[in-house]
Amino acid sequence: MGVSTSSPEKGISLVSVDVPPVNALPVSGWFALADAVRAAGRDPGTRCVVLAAEGRGFNAGVDIKELQTQGPGALVGVNRGCFEAFAAVYECEVPVVAAVHGFCLGGGVGLAGNADLIVASEDAVFGLPELDRGALGAATHLARLVPQHLMRALYFTSRTVTAAELHTHGSVWRVVRREELRAAALEVAREIAAKDGELLRLAKAALNGIDPVDVRRSYRFEQGFTFEASVSGVADRVRETFGKERG
């Protein structure tokens, strides 16, 4: 369990997350994921990274219980950990394919939104339930998946969007049956890995360089409001209702 790295095929590194029950990562998990993705990208033998997960869903965001029990230090830690993990995916020296199944929520959107390509199973749903959890953030990454007004609607309502819907927007490359997900992700990773490795790294750097939004700066700006919500007491007030039926 935790974060592991394997090499299923030549030129492909598979970084997999397995943190039961729902892949909601603690502070240490976000840093471990960042380290694994960066290490895979630095490996001269790697030409494509596949980011995947085991269990019920791709990623359910941060470990809310850790935030509730460990106080301000946990918030600072998770802010930094998420920032590093999202940046590691975006800045990975080679293309990153996200293989998404089940739920992709909160931090999951941060990871998938910064990937270069998404392959998803039919049961995959994407969303930011942040306003229901006393947090903010990752609108930067959701905006990479859907148009602006849809991003705002999803953000303010905490609703989710399906993989099929994202496919219509062009942000999900393929939608496949759950049992076909890993094979489909490896298939496109294999196609990428067949390219010249040095040229792939130049291409990744070039594409990041022409992005219209600086995702690191944009997300860091969002995090400032998450911290403000915390120190003002708003976050705790909302988190106390998390998982409870509202009156």
Automatic annotation (TrEMBL):
Its EC number is 4.2.1.17. Keywords: Lipid metabolism, Lyase. The lineage of its organism: Bacteria, Bacillati, Actinomycetota, Actinomycetes, Kitasatosporales. One of its GO terms (molecular function) is enoyl-CoA hydratase activity. CDD domains: crotonase-like (cd06558). Pfam families: ECH_1 (PF00378). This is Enoyl-CoA hydratase. Signal peptide: none annotated. It comes from the Bacteria. Gene3D superfamilies: 2-enoyl-CoA Hydratase, Chain A, domain 1. The keyword Lipid metabolism applies. Belongs to the enoyl-CoA hydratase/isomerase family. GO terms for biological process: fatty acid beta-oxidation. It comes from Streptomyces griseoruber.
